[in-house]
Write a structure and sequence with these properties.
Blueprint lengths: L1 E3 L2 H13 L4 E6 L5 H13 L2 E6 L19 H10 L4 E3 L3 H4 L25 H16 L3 E5 L3 H13 L5 E5 L19 H6 L2 H14 L5 H15 L3 E9 L12 E9 L4 E9 L3
Length: 283
């Protein structure tokens, strides 16, 4: 596995690979890798000649009261996991390398952002699409892989890539879960022992909502109530939101139909957990 820290060096290497006809699968991460990330790597290695991973904790997608400084980092561990799981090229730039001076262009997401996590994380997705634009130009992938646990991010990335005509296929990969159903996340390390026992109930609440929809309930408010009640009754977490929206448009629904997402965020003492289920009723 080759490791690069400089933009110029990785661009030169990958440009040569592209000239030689190699296809590139790209897995952008902020590190502290877990099985969710590695599932993206597995799919990328199956579908491409080269798998490129970036590890970069992007400061411009964190708000002033968010956890940029204490976001977990362990590059030596990540490097070994990446190599052991088939990553061919690892890109680990510094903040100064990615943002050497103040940008003269401001990217702004206009749609799909003012719901779910985006409602309270102003500017977050502007930072996401900014860093991804840079990373896409740097790594020149044919395909890029994103976990569907952060379904809003996936929907926005899919939309902005189409808007800006990037020649990249955006591939969504199913959420990887613990045996008890809890979605894998770097932030799970912040949970207390009691919170870790309660956290799987978030997914159980979503499954209850999914089952109700499959049984014919088409009122979004009723699904929100079912999911919310289950979370409140079975966890000590505070609900940030429960929403039922069209997917990937993320528009409100009067009645549940077509492809939809049921999504929630729950705040525990030191960790905010997100999860979702996606249903396609048009099939």
């Amino acid at each position: 596995m080759k490791v690069f820290t400089k933009i110029k060096d990785i661009q030169e290497f990958l440009s040569e690979q592209k000239r030689n006809g190699k296809t590139i699968g790209f897995v952008p991460t902020m590190g502290y890798l877990h099985e969710g990330h590695l599932s993206l790597v597995k799919k990328a290695t199956a579908e491409n000649d080269l798998t490129v991973m970036s590890i970069f904790v992007n400061p411009i997608q964190f708000g002033p009261n968010e956890d940029f400084e204490r976001y977990p980092r362990d590059f030596d561990r990540d490097r070994k996991l990446a190599e052991d799981n088939g990553v061919d090229v690892l890109f680990h730039p510094s903040v100064e390398e990615m943002y050497p001076e103040e940008s003269i262009v401001q990217m702004n997401v206009k749609k799909r952002k003012d719901v779910l996590c985006g409602r309270t994380r102003k500017g977050h997705f502007d930072g996401v699409v900014t860093v991804l634009t840079k990373l896409f130009h740097i790594t020149m992938p044919d395909r890029a892989y994103f976990g569907l646990k952060d379904a809003q991010q996936f929907a926005i990335v899919q939309g902005f890539v189409a808007d800006l005509n990037f020649p990249i296929d955006i591939i969504g990969v199913e959420t990887v879960r613990e045996e008890d159903g809890l979605a894998k996340s770097s932030r799970n390390t912040y949970l207390s022992a009691q919170e870790r026992k309660e956290a799987p109930e978030i997914y159980q609440a979503l499954l209850k909502g999914k089952k109700a929809v499959e049984n014919g309930v088409d009122d979004p408010a009723e699904i929100v109530r079912l999911v919310s009640d289950h979370i409140r009754q079975n966890t000590g977490g505070e609900i940030d939101y429960v929403e039922v929206l069209s997917f990937p448009e993320l528009d409100p629904l009067e009645r549940i139909k077509g492809k939809v997402i049921i999504a929630t965020a729950v705040q525990f003492a030191s960790a905010r957990l997100i999860d979702n289920v996606i249903l396609d009723l048009s099939r």
